[in-house]
Amino acid sequence: MKATMKHPAPPPPTLATDSDFLAAAEALLGPRGLTRDPELMQPWLTDWRGRYTGRALALAQPASTAEVAALMRLCAAHRVPVVPQGGNSGMVGGATPDASGGALLLSLRRMAAIRRLDPAAGLVVCEAGVVLQHLHEAAEAQGLRFPLTLGGKGSATIGGLVSTNAGGTQVLRHGTMRAQVLGLEVVLADGSVLDLLAALKKDNRGFDLKQLFIGSEGTLGIVTAAALRLLPAAAGRATAWVGLGGIKEAGRLLRRMERRLGDVLEGFEVVPAHCLASVLAHQPGARSPLAERHPWNALIECVSPHEDNAALSETLEQALAEALEAGLIADAAIAANEAQAEAFWALRDGISAAERALGPAMQHDISVPVEAMPDFILAAGPAIEAAHPGTRAVAFGHLGDGNVHFHVLAPEGAVRGIWEEAEGKAISAHVHDLVTQWGGSISAEHGIGQMKRDELARLHDPVALGLMRRIKAALDPEGLLNPGKLV
Q1: 236-351 is classed in which CATH architecture?
Q2: What does the buried/exposed string (b/e) look like for 10-31 if buried means 16 or more CB atoms within 10 Å of the residue's CB?
Q3: Distance from first CA to last CA of the chain, Å, rounded?
Q4: In the beta sheet, which residues pair with residue 35?
Q5: CA distance linking residue 106 with residue 222, whole number of Å
Q6: CATH fold match for the domains 236-351 and 359-446
Q7: Which of 174, 206, 262, 471 is the most exposed place for a label (fewest CB within 10 A)?
Q8: Backbone dihedral angles phi then psi of residue 53, each to the nearest 5 degrees
Q9: What are the two backbone dihedrals, phi and then psi, of residue 482, each rounded to the nearest 5 degrees?
Q10: Distance between CA atoms of 407 and 391, rounded to whole angstroms?
Q11: What are the domain boundaries of the chain?
Q12: Which long-range contacts (CB under 8 A, 24 or more apart) does 315-323 make?
């Protein structure tokens, strides 16, 4: 199949008013496809964190790529901005319209078909509205798996994951969403449909155009479908919770486990004592995997398509016994069954909710080179706490790929909503300055959205920013796609 661009018919003449546009959009999409009902729109006008609330001209829910393309032609004719939205589970306000009420909120949740699942090819073609958990279930039914997961798998959609280049807990072994995408179907700002779904192993016809849209947060085009790679189902899984004396020991354990376990090592998450205590206090029925408290903990996951649970657990147990003998770890518990493994992961996945219950916090999704991350945590935490008295800095997450969630908790008594807008912004700027000095990124996996747009402009390489803006201007000259986000 060739990569093709289907050129639309010339758009109709520009109509004069919003009512004309809405009438034409309703005629196109039908009553299920377009609503202005405030109650139906309200849940989708505030971001997942509750930090941004906007207004929209209407909520459009097309049911096919053809409807998306026709709608974009209509929006181009009327100069109506469009804010694409997947599961509305983003962390940076990237799918929330502004307060003007002039933009159309475009949801692809009705486009939830799995068009093709080919077990022999290890390939699935699914529409943008497919929920990640549903994709997992469809793959598992065929003896396969999709190697990307995250805490919001029950609401995150494939289109959103592609548009934000999502990460998750398996990046150490399998890479981000970018590594899973074999092809895309994208509707451009003028309604053209770019068909790049052919999953070719080798294709040297110039630019790899699909890479432009992965991570572009809906600012260059609307992803309507994706061809994704699938892997053989896991024959065995082994999960361990490890107690450590410090973050430096965690870094050394990571390298030791990589050498000792090889490709079966899929996840290496770090959790400080403060975060674990917060989850234990907040999450009903939660229990610490270890009898004693440790300054740091590591959650290690191994998955193999060949070894069964017993064999893989034995391999992991031997590797940890060697680390214990070498004085690198203090204690460890290996999950005895799937339920216990899921309980370990529930402790890790529950950190954000538990900390949110404690009060306001500034949350940063940052990365630095993997080898530098332990030293960064040891340097940045005290620096932030000293400069902003009463705060507490905690870091947790994907140490294996150099990405941690660096949260700064507000002083006791801080008022949610006020503190973030005042001292919180200065704290984030300080954190981003430190990350930049360490050669890192202010956004490792959550994107830029509207939350970090000004910081990206302040800190990113001006040459790179200039190129991004020129690409945006070329593909969306009227600035209709997700205005106010990313660039």
Answers
A1: 2-Layer Sandwich (3.30)
A2: eeeeeeeeeeebbebbbebbee
A3: 33
A4: 59
A5: 10
A6: yes
A7: 206
A8: -130, 130
A9: 45, 55
A10: 10
A11: 1-233+449-487, 236-351, 359-446
A12: 315/238, 315/261, 315/264, 316/238, 316/240, 316/261, 319/256, 319/257, 319/260, 319/261, 320/240, 320/242, 322/260, 323/253, 323/256, 323/257
pLDDT tens track for 419-430: 998 899 999 999
Sign of the torsion formed by the C-alpha atoms of 268, 274, 276 and 279: negative
Q: DSSP labels for 323-353? A: HHHTTS-SEEEE-SSHHHHHHHHHHHHTHHH
CA distance 158 to 223: 9
Reduced to 3 states (helix: H, G, I; strand: E, B; else coil), residue 475 is helix
DSSP-derived 3-state class of residue 317? helix
Per-residue model confidence as pLDDT tens digits over 434-456: 999 999 999 998 899 999 999 99
| Residue 464 pLDDT exceeds 60 | yes
Structure tokens at 437: 């000095």
**Tokens standing for residue 375:** 């030293």
Please name the amino acid found at residue 378: L
Please list the alpha-helical segments (H only) found in 283-424: 309-325, 338-349, 351-358, 373-387
Whole-prediction pTM = 0.89
> What is the CATH code for 359-446?
3.30.70.2740
The residue written with tokens 């908790």 in the block is: 409
What integer pLDDT is reported at residue 17 of this predicted model?
Answer: 59
